[in-house]
Amino acid sequence: MYSDKLRKLFDAGSIKIGDLIKVESGDLIFEGELMPKTEAGHEDAIVVKLKSGYNAGVMYGDGVRITKISSGKAVEFPLSNPKMAENLPKVSLLWTGGTIGSKIEYKTGGVHMTVKPEELFYYIPELPSIANIKFNQICEIASEDMSYHEWQKIAEETADALNEGARGVVITHGTDTMGFTASALAFMLQNLNAPVVLTGSQRSSDRGSSDAFLNLIAATNIAANSNVAEVGICMHASSSDDRMHLLRGVKARKMHTSRRDAFRPINDRPIAYVDMDGRISYVSEYKKTVKAAGKVTANTKFEPKTALLKVYPNSDPEIMQYYIDRGYRGFILEGTGLGHMPVSTEHPGKSWLPYIKNAIENGAVIGMTSQTLYGRVNANVYRNLRLLGNAGVVYCEDMLPETAYVKLGWLLGSHDNKAAKELLDKNIAGEITKRVNYDEFLV
Amino acid sequence: MYSDKLRKLFDAGSIKIGDLIKVESGDLIFEGELMPKTEAGHEDAIVVKLKSGYNAGVMYGDGVRITKISSGKAVEFPLSNPKMAENLPKVSLLWTGGTIGSKIEYKTGGVHMTVKPEELFYYIPELPSIANIKFNQICEIASEDMSYHEWQKIAEETADALNEGARGVVITHGTDTMGFTASALAFMLQNLNAPVVLTGSQRSSDRGSSDAFLNLIAATNIAANSNVAEVGICMHASSSDDRMHLLRGVKARKMHTSRRDAFRPINDRPIAYVDMDGRISYVSEYKKTVKAAGKVTANTKFEPKTALLKVYPNSDPEIMQYYIDRGYRGFILEGTGLGHMPVSTEHPGKSWLPYIKNAIENGAVIGMTSQTLYGRVNANVYRNLRLLGNAGVVYCEDMLPETAYVKLGWLLGSHDNKAAKELLDKNIAGEITKRVNYDEFLV
């Protein structure tokens, strides 16, 4: 809420949230809609939504003048869901929170990231014309707070939705850990025979430049109309609003803090593009739906005692022992280059080799990936890698470190260490490709 | 060395290393030069250098036939350095090991990554025509084994070389941690007034496709002829041999395990391109040399009790306490998205917030970066970030996690924690830029 001082000032001028106001501060003049104070904003910062769609914040103080231009329109939502067209494909929309919900939040003054279906369809009236949508808010959580507990819940709800007749599932999700959740679903959902599409937005939906609506429309199109039987991520392909892409969940990574086209395929190509008119163009191989494939099941067991460790110069290898002492069963190492780590004995206590050997003797499974992200680890080029390979480290091919982490935790959830180790470098859900193509670097 | 069995076989056929041989194994026939056994290779694997420049390995066993086609030419190195042209610019070449030295290694049968200057100039006869080169092998170490001890030595040798009259310095280095070393030098070298260029190779120099020679030639050109007063990395700009680029060391990252163009500028543009003829084209702003700038000094103090921690779903925040208990003074967190980490109290023991607060109460300096690599962290967008910002976490702008780690360790080497914290998000060597340009994503 705004400060007492500001609220008194607003009251004195009969200014309400949503009114068109003018804010003058020295040479600067802002005209726009008065917004509610943002959660992160200062209580004295007046937030104005400009005509461009962007928000401006002006710190209130001496010399700042506020004038009301006109009253805002009250937003009135329809009282109930719009009627869904029974003849359209059935799509289940699982809502988990994240930036995509934030416009609705401020308009209603509602709780962080909550959304009601009638509000959603008010803001995106295109959705009911694409699919017969069943809305289901299953949690309300920022992406960075997602854990395997939520992965399990989402997997179960997805399986239920598909077994109850949905032809596809759309899952809204915060973008930060969307790649992790997509990987978890790709491994957990067994006998998947339908599109499962995660989507979200990089720019909050109270900004003119928000990608929320187009991403959600494109994701719904894929769930309603594609024959992709994989877990994918659907986000902006470019930073202009011309097309979205569907990326294989196990091969997608958020590569930019803020750009709308932050999600990129790593060592992979997009599965498909979706244009503004909802047309889907398939551009690479993917698993296709087949008729009468039986029920989807969710094998959601996950071993939380799995760690992802980044290795770097001067890093302390003894942290492996810290985890071993706490009963950790699996490690994904994010090594340098082709999968290296310090093994020299020249700097006492800095070689990872004895700790790796000890962890393996303790039965732990250790997988090697690369912090370069692109490319493939390879134990056969250099001597230091041979040492690690001989010690029993599994080289995870062209798998992303994050995907390898989720995979190992999932494998250890329902296998003993030996069996999990055997499966770690075998492809299960498209996470390992035989060959990295030349045109898959930095696209 | 090859196995006894193979050596007997070679002796019986009068086959020596370097001879042209034919190896037949079932349907496969290889013709090429017999290579010495590689360090990492099996002692029964016959390594043949094909005409394509690539090596093939054939495991010796039943049905494998080896025939000598012709004797190889013995490689004879000149007995001493070629005479250097006194009129050319003086460049100091500091050799540290890495892939770039591996051709010389196999020809001489010498020790891993060692090189003698007469061998170097034999293989790259262009070098003495570019600069009056003083060769100095200062260590012999794989990139993954580099530590701050080597950073210190390289910084001191670089300062000495420049103060003794070199107009530029070239440093050969393994590629895996080249970005870390370049960052360390950028911070350690004070009053730098000359080009300091790290270079290396992604493909070992015994392969036809090696990038070693062109990279070293381009780096020498920059050291001899450019007016760049920064620490840079010079590697292939594209995977064809048409041009090399000079990247700002603090903004460069190895982004592919094996491609020759693996080094990319992150949130930055290249400083310059160097073409095959040695022409340097400057393409962005950089610090320029000035006349009579005085001596370079090396402030090499580094606090090894600095950690780089990657945060991910289900990650264990208690490891911060592990480091605090061991006297660690600084942490760089590699958060998600704009700089997030789990702070929800819903999953007991999984919020990082209490551990961060405790570390800060213990006086530790904590910097936030993003695992997206591209883009800028920002504490002002979401509520969870405000919690971290309020706790005293320093948001490291658009700095790479690896660069931020090196910077913090270096700051803590010669400052108390409070002063180091103040400097962490202030630009020192080009590691923080005010604005990320649109065309700096995935290039």
Give a verbal description of the structure:
Two copies of one chain form a homodimer. Chain A has 443 residues and is an alpha/beta fold. Chain A folds into three domains: 67 residues, SH3 type barrels (Roll), CATH 2.30.30.520; 209 residues, Rossmann fold (3-Layer(aba) Sandwich), CATH 3.40.50; 119 residues, Rossmann fold (3-Layer(aba) Sandwich), CATH 3.40.50. Helix content of chain A is 26%, strand content 22%. Chain A contains twelve helices and 21 strands. In chain A, the strands form five sheets. An eight-stranded mixed β-sheet of chain A has the order 7-6-8-10-11-12-15-16, with helices on both faces. Chain A has a five-stranded antiparallel β-sheet with strand order 4-3-2-1-5, with no helix packed on it. In chain A, a hairpin with a 6-residue loop joins strand 11 and strand 12. In chain A, helix 11 runs antiparallel to helix 12. The radius of gyration of chain A is 25 Å and the shape is globular. About 2% of the residues of chain A have low confidence. The interface between A and B is large, with 81 and 81 residues.
